[in-house]
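Fold sample X.
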Amino acid sequence: KLVAYVVKKVHELGVKAVAHVYTAADYRAALYGGVDEMVHMPGVWYEAGMEKTRFLLTEEDARETKRRGVVVNPTMAYAHEFVIAHPQWAKLVMDEMFIPNLRLLKQHGVTIVTGSDYFHHNVLEELFLLRDSKLFSNTELLKMTTETSSQLLFPSRKTGRLSDGYEANFLVLDPDPTSNLDNLRSIDMRVKQGRRLFL
């Protein structure tokens, strides 16, 4: 009831409601409370002895997420930093919580976007972790980042595509990142609002 009340007040301000979730119960409270976007994957704060089922989403969770049009931002880079600090749990969290949850959401067509949840990280670390999950192709990950995430962040602007009428903000890469995401580090040229940037 409290989540629904807070979300209602947030929506009355004309902004989106975004929830950080740590367990499957958090996820459901946010989902049925009416949030617009989830951040994190359940399992971030796993500790030894906790039941794994506390962090696993269900088919119904995934279906309802899709039905309500809720967006999911896994912020796996944030989670990865936690599990790296606790290496004894890292494989369990990644393989038995994060990846099954992401697989389920993807299978049900939930919109997944990318972000780091850290000011001192860029989106590359997130992309590489999502790639390592083996759930997404390089092309899917690039579209997720350049199109889906951009259009979610700036819904009133025409961004994220090379098309007539869209903002001329883009990077020129060499070689092709669809063959290897590591190529995202090979930037030949940067263009902002139609003007080349020299860094």
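Fold sample Y, listed below.
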Amino acid sequence: FYLFLCAIPLILVIVLFILSVYKHYQARPDQCNAVFDVQLNPSYQVELNPVPTMFWNTYFTPKKHTELLLRDFWIASSYRSYQPCGGTNDVTSYKTIQNVLEKGARAIHLDIWSSTPDDFFDPSAEPIVRNKGLMGFVGKALDLEECCRVIADQAWNGNKFPLLLYLEFHEPAGKNKYLLAKVAKILYQYFSPRLLPPQYGFSRIPVGTIPIRLAMGKIIFLTNEYPLQS
């Protein structure tokens, strides 16, 4: 009984601590919502709504710009967006690309290979999407056109945020002019209404300096090969 009486103060301290923690977490939703009400500059608007400061990339100090640029935002990105599990010896899936977009990714990465990897000049070569190490028996390459169809159908479903599509070409895909022409035709077929004005093409300006108001609802292509063909 004496030990129980001595333990009462300790029990009270534990109860008070639990109550204080509970009240703290109960108040957190209001605190989190308050973040969206903070504006460093009232002129920072996207679609006439304030830009949540939690999405700002402060490395470039956006307060110095007259308008927000693409580089002023953190961008949710996906590496090898066509693979559901890992980076090597994996399967490929159109559904994975759709899932990545549904989860909010705004930068998609596709590896582009040639269907005839031993010939740099084969006019019949088709652009395919795969990793260098596909899983045996079940690992199959994807068709670039179908990948683009999935992206076009899903990327702006319910939002107007810009999309970055990084096409990483692997030899001989990046050197085969016939294959590159097919890639260009596919991209234009599915994304022509979402292209930026011509002055932003061919690396004329740094991608990060594109005004966000112009990039809304648009697609930006990035590659590891300079497009020598028009």
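Sample Y note: The helical segments are 2-35, 94-102, 144-154, 177-191, 212-215.
Also: The two ends are 90 Å apart (CA to CA).
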